Amino acid sequence: MNGIAPIRAVVADDEAFARQRILQLLQHEPDFQVVSECSHGGEAVEAIRKLKPDVVFLDIQMPELDGFGVVEAIGPEKMPLTIFATAFDQHAIQAFEVSALDYLLKPIDPDRMVKALDRVRSMLRGGHPNGLRLQLDSLLAVVNQSDTYLTRILVKHEEHHVIVKAGDIQWIEAEDNYVRLHVEGTSHLLRMSMATILSKLDPRQFRRIHRSSIVNLDQIHEVHPWFSGDHVVIMKDGTRLTMSRTYRDQFKELA
């Protein structure tokens, strides 16, 4: 390093393989030094406060405290240079483009990573501009106020990734710390809570009918009364789902 201090980085992502991907790419950059790996937002907050890194690679979709929550917890005025990582190509990226912040779309492309790192070097050489603080403030405002919903979701399928159109999703099933997207005879696991994915989907098209089920309204064929106030929802592909009475009232407007 010829006496030049390394660029100190924190990598925060709840998925181990995603962290390893970033670490592998950074191994080819001798002027970068990873000072902490974090598996959730709380760890990221602690690491940023304690280690004061030059840059943080921050996953957006982390359970409990997501990437935007980390920024809010630290405060835009105290955040290091921030490169977001996201598996979504709609809502988040629109926010980044508005705020002129950098992001990496998963799976991370090596050439795109090189461009992001060059930008980090350039910004650090020029000092940490006040404009970045304003950009982070702007990002949070866009994220919190935007009514833009996902139209496409990037999901892992076997050894590659595919883009699933939101309108093609028939229904969504809770599965431990994941959700399973049922799409035209196949399904995809996505690490996210039911509440989180529901908040990212257009409520005019997607409704929760049970604590473990979200349906695409366009894919419903019939709804029949059942026992104790529950209903049976029959999807166009023949799948039978239970609508609990807890969620029944929200469908009155559709009658």
Secondary-structure map:
Layout: E1 7-12, H1 16-26, E2 32-38, H2 41-51, E3 55-59, H3 67-74, E4 81-86, H4 91-99, E5 102-105, H5 110-125, H6 130-145, E6 152-157, E7 160-165, E8 171-175, E9 178-183, E10 186-190, H7 194-200, E11 206-210, E12 213-216, E13 220-225, E14 231-235, E15 240-243, H8 245-248
Parallel strand pairs: 1-2, 1-3, 3-4, 4-5
Antiparallel strand pairs: 6-7, 8-9, 8-12, 9-10, 11-12, 13-14, 14-15
Helix pairs in contact: 2-3, 4-6
N-to-C SSE string, H for helix and E for strand: EHEHEHEHEHHEEEEEHEEEEEH
Overall mean pLDDT stands at 84
CATH top level label of the largest domain: Alpha Beta
Number of helices: 8
Q: Beta fraction of the residues? A: 25-35%
Percent in helix: 25-40%
Compute the number of structural domains: 2
Architecture (CATH level 2) name of the largest domain: 3-Layer(aba) Sandwich
CATH superfamily annotation of the largest domain: Response regulator
What global shape is seen? elongated
SS content category: alpha/beta
Low-confidence stretches: none
Q: From the alpha-carbon coordinates, what is the Rg to the nearest angstrom?
A: 21 Å
In which order are the strands of the major sheet placed? Answer: 2-1-3-4-5
Number of strand elements: 15
CATH topology of the largest domain: Rossmann fold
Q: Report on the biggest sheet.
A: 5 strands, parallel
Tell me the distance between the termini: 69 Å
